[in-house]
Automatic annotation (TrEMBL):
This is Protein-L-isoaspartate O-methyltransferase. Belongs to the methyltransferase superfamily. L-isoaspartyl/D-aspartyl protein methyltransferase family. GO terms for biological process: methylation. Pfam families: PCMT. It is an enzyme of class 2 (transferase).
Length: 508
C-alpha cells in the first residue's frame, strides 16, 4: 500500500496552535487518554503524548499531530528528514532472522489499536474489525518496533532522493476508513493500485476469503518484492503482487469487483473504469483542485460514474506513469523555509513568488467561525473550487509562526496564488462563543505581494459564500469525459478538468 507521505500529510493534515485548545477541551471532557487501555506504553506515550479517542479521525496525521502539539508544544509543518541520502532507500525484504516477537504482546497491542479505531468511528462492520484484529501488521513493517507497528501512525519505508517519503505503511485509522468505504465482500476479485508493504492487500485478502483473490501492483519493483516477502511471512496465499504502472491497472486479471487506489490520483485513468465488472466500485483518493483531496467511492449508475460518498483523505500521488501527478516545491520566504507544495500541472511562476513573504502584509477577516472540533474540510474544497489557483499546500516550520507568517496560519490546503501574489488562510480566537460558552475561531486571509489585496478579498468572499449558502452541505462528484457537453452554469456547481477526465463537483 503506497500510503500518505509525511511531506504531504504530516504537513498538510496537522492543524496547529488553536487546535491545542481543542485538545485541552477534549481532555477536560474526558475525551483524551495518555495511553491505550491494556496496551504497553510506547516511547512517545511515555514522553507524555496524548492519544485522541474522539472525534473520528479523517486524515493522516491530522489529529495525531494536534495531540503531539498539545503534549509536546510544537509541530513543524515541514517535510520529514530522512538522513540526507542521495539515493532512494526502502525496506526491500523481510529479515527472517529478526528477533522473535511474543505473539501475545503483538495481539494485545493490535487489539488495543483496533479498540481505538472503533472508538474513533471506523471499522464499522464486523468483517473489517475482524480483519484488523487478525492480520499481523508487525510482519509488514519488520524494521519497526512492536509499539510503532501498532501505533496509530504511518511507518515510512521509502524516500525519494530529496527526502520526500514516497511509501509507507498507512495510518491504521485511514486504512480502516477506506476499507469501510470499499465494502469488499467474500469471493470478490480486487485490484489494489499501490502495493506498499502489502499490509492493505493482506487485509483485503482476509475480507474476500479463500474464494476471492487480490492483485496488488506497484511501479517500484523493490516495493513489490518486499510486499511479496511480507505477505508470505504472514501466510497470505490468495494475493499476487506485480510490478506494473498503476495507471494501466492489470487487464490480464480483469474484471474486478472492486478497485482501490492507495495512491493519490488527479485524473482517473480510463483503464481503472474499464477493468471493473458491472456493478463494480472504484475507491480513489482524488486530488480535486489545488491540493484539496478526498477519498471518493464511484459506481456506474445509468451510464454515469457518480460518487456514493467521500471522506477527507490525501495520499502521495501516482508516479512515473501516464497519470503522473508529481509535485514541486516553491519557496515563498527569502530563507526558503516557507514553501508551497504545488503539483506539476499547476502553472505557477516560482520566480515571481520568490521572497514574497517579505513584502507588506494585507489582512481580511471573514467573520466565519468554527468551534473546537469542527472540521472545515468542506469549506476548504468549496474555496479551492472557487479560486483559479485552488488552495495549495503551504509548508512551514514552527519558527515561522508569528515571524514570517501570522500567529496561527491554517496548516492544511491553505494558499491561493495569482502571479506574484499569495494569500493564505489564518485563524484567530474569536470574541464570540458557542451557545454553551465554548470558544470559536475566526478564519481570515493574509496576503503578500502585488495584487494580494484583491486576491485576499476573493478568497475571503469565497469563505463567506460557503458560510452563508453551503455550510452543513456536502458535495457529490461525477467523472465525465473531457469531451462531454459543458455543464450548466449555476452556483455551487464546478467542472474541474484534469488531463484525463472532468470532475463535476456539485453542492446539492
Amino acid at each position: 500500500m503506497v500510503a500518505p507521505d509525511f511531506n504531504e500529510l504530516n504537513p498538510d493534515a496537522s492543524p496547529q496552535a488553536a487546535y491545542g485548545a481543542r485538545l485541552r477541551s477534549l481532555r477536560e471532557a474526558g475525551g483524551l487518554k495518555r495511553s491505550w487501555p491494556n496496551a504497553r506504553t510506547s516511547p512517545r506515550q511515555a514522553a507524555g503524548a496524548v492519544v485522541v479517542t474522539r472525534p473520528p479521525l479523517r486524515h493522516e496525521y491530522r489529529m495525531s499531530n494536534i495531540a503531539r502539539e498539545e503534549a509536546m508544544g510544537s509541530s513543524d509543518n515541514t517535510a520529514s528528514p530522512t538522513g540526507g541520502t542521495a539515493e532512494t532507500s526502502s525496506v526491500r525484504a523481510v529479515n527472517t532472522d529478526a528477533i522473535a516477537i511474543p505473539e501475545a504482546d503483538a495481539e494485545r497491542l493490535r487489539n488495543a489499536l483496533v479498540d481505538q479505531i472503533r472508538a474513533d468511528g471506523h471499522a464499522r462492520t464486523p468483517d473489517v474489525e475482524r480483519a484488523l484484529r487478525t492480520v499481523p501488521r508487525h510482519k509488514f513493517v519488520p524494521g519497526a518496533s512492536l509499539e510503532d507497528a501498532y501505533a496509530n501512525s504511518p511507518v515510512p519505508i521509502k524516500y525519494d532522493s530529496d527526502g520526500t517519503s514516497i511509501s509507507c505503511a498507512s495510518q491504521p485509522v485511514v486504512v480502516a476508513l477506506m476499507l469501510d468505504q470499499l465494502q469488499a465482500q467474500p469471493g470478490e476479485r480486487i485490484l489494489e493500485i499501490g502495493a506498499g508493504t502489502g499490509y492493505n492487500a493482506a487485509l483485503l485478502a482476509h475480507l474476500v476469503g479463500d474464494s476471492g483473490h487480490v492483485t496488488t501492483i506497484d511501479v517500484d519493483d523493490d516495493l513489490v518484492q518486499g510486499a511479496r516477502a511480507h505477505l508470505s511471512a504472514a501466510g497470505c496465499t490468495n494475493v499476487e503482487a506485480l510490478t506494473r504502472d498503476g495507471a494501466l491497472g492489470h487487464a490480464e486479471g480483469a474484471p474486478y469487483d472492486r478497485i482501490i487506489a492507495t495512491v493519490g490520483a488527479h485524473g482517473v485513468p480510463r483503464a481503472w473504469l474499464d477493468q471493473l465488472a458491472p456493478g463494480g466500485r472504484l475507491l480513489v483518493p482524488q486530488r480535486l483542485k489545488g491540493s484539496v483531496a478526498r477519498s471518493v467511492a464511484y459506481e456506474q449508475r445509468d451510464g454515469r460514474w457518480v460518487s456514493l460518498g467521500s471522506e477527507m483523505n490525501t495520499f502521495m500521488p501516482l508516479r512515473r506513469g501516464i497519470a503522473d501527478d508529481g509535485r514541486r516545491v516553491i519557496p515563498l520566504s527569502a530563507d526558503g523555509t516557507v514553501r508551497l507544495q504545488a503539483h506539476a500541472g499547476q502553472h505557477i511562476d516560482a520566480g515571481a513568488l520568490s521572497g514574497v513573504l517579505g513584502q507588506p502584509r494585507t489582512e481580511e477577516w471573514t467573520g466565519m467561525t468554527v468551534h473546537a472540533m469542527e472540521s472545515p474540510e468542506w469549506m476548504e474544497l468549496f474555496v479551492s473550487c472557487s479560486v483559479p489557483s485552488g488552495l495549495i499546500r503551504m509548508l512551514f516550520p514552527q519558527s515561522a509562526k508569528g515571524t514570517l507568517l501570522s500567529d496561527d496560519p491554517y496548516p492544511s490546503s491553505a494558499a491561493a496564488v495569482d502571479k506574484g501574489a499569495v494569500a493564505y488562510l489564518a485563524r484567530r480566537l474569536s470574541e464570540k462563543k458557542t451557545p454553551e460558552g465554548g470558544r470559536l475561531w475566526e478564519f481570515g486571509v493574509i496576503g503578500h505581494g502585488p495584487g494580494s489585496d484583491e486576491l485576499a478579498a476573493t478568497v475571503a468572499d469565497a469563505i463567506r459564500t460557503w458560510d452563508r449558502d453551503y455550510r452543513g452541505r456536502a458535495a457529490t462528484f461525477e467523472l465525465q469525459p473531457l469531451d462531454a457537453p459543458a455543464i450548466e452554469q449555476r452556483p455551487g456547481l464546478f467542472a474541474l478538468d484534469t488531463p484525463l477526465n472532468r470532475i463535476v463537483v456539485d453542492w446539492q
